[in-house]
Amino acid sequence: MELTNSAVEVAQPGTAIYMLHWGEHYERGSNGPYLGAAGLDFTALSADYRRERYAAAEAAHEDRCPLGEGDFQTWLVAKQILSPIASTDVEIDVRTYGNEYVPKHWPECPECSGGRGEQDYGDVRRSLNRIVVYHRCTECRHVWGHHEVACRSGEPMLEDDGRDTQGGCVPFSISKACGIDWKLAVAACAKHGWDSGGMSPDRAVVAARELGFELVRQRLPGSGKPNGLTLKSLISGLPRNRNYVVSVKGHWLALVGGAIVDNDTNSGLGRKVVDLYEVKAVQSAAA
Ligand SMILES: [Zn+2]
Question: Are both 57 and 142 inside the same structural domain?
Fold first, then answer.
């Protein structure tokens, strides 16, 4: 079989390079490349091939005449309809071990030479719309430049008002109901035993007093009812010009101007009210 690999020859007008394919699924086969005249009619050629092979088998008194795609190719080459073109098999690999794309617009690592900082993400504080972003070095894995950005871009990042602080419902509701800064509220509560597991109501009242506010326990309207008082019915009966701290089972929240201000716990309106405190400024502390 004479091979040609001349690029000049295969590029000549009126010729084409053919790859042949046949069969289906796991019996699918391919072979080539071959050079031949452009526009060959392989349906007509296979009919010619079949007729010739049948005639030869007839002449030889054969009982069978098997045809095959491999034999058809041999026939095409013997007829000089196609000629095989030498090809070179190569393995190609564009995997990038050690040559990863490191764009120049990534900042240079402050710890090593050559590394650059890829952006990575840290803690998410969804309710505050905040997520920590930082750089991680592509070489030495040093991390730096931690800062917070909005996780929902287009919406403002909220200041930390304690809404997502674990076990922070007491200082959160004191902060909101008294209108004082979260950090002040949580510091005062921590002084009186608050931690991420919460704190006792009695000591929360003391903490609030230190901040200048009296949490005055109220008699619950309709508290004699067998089903108790729900948050919803409590709110509907309270004046809107006062602020309250409400205790439901295992949780505190604030009522500010008639609206529930809850931390991320988001108590449902059906929660049963355990205690109600009206917020009053302590005269001596306020003076
Ligand atoms: Zn580095």
Answer: no
Give 127 Cα–ligand 1 centroid separation in angstroms.
Answer: 33
The predicted-structure confidence for 203-244, as pLDDT tens digits, reads as follows 999 999 999 999 999 988 765 666 678 898 898 889 999 999
112 lies in the same domain as 52: no
Query: How buried is residue 69: exposed, middle or buried, by Cβ count under 10 Å (0-12/13-18/19+)?
Result: middle
Question: What is the residue range of 27's domain?
Answer: 7-84
- Ligand 1 centroid to residue 109 C-alpha, Å: 5
CATH number for the domain that contains residue 139: 2.20.25
Report the domain count for the chain: 3
> Are the CB atoms for 269 and 231 separated by under 8 Å?
yes
- Residues in the chain with pLDDT < 70? 1-11, 222-227, 283-287
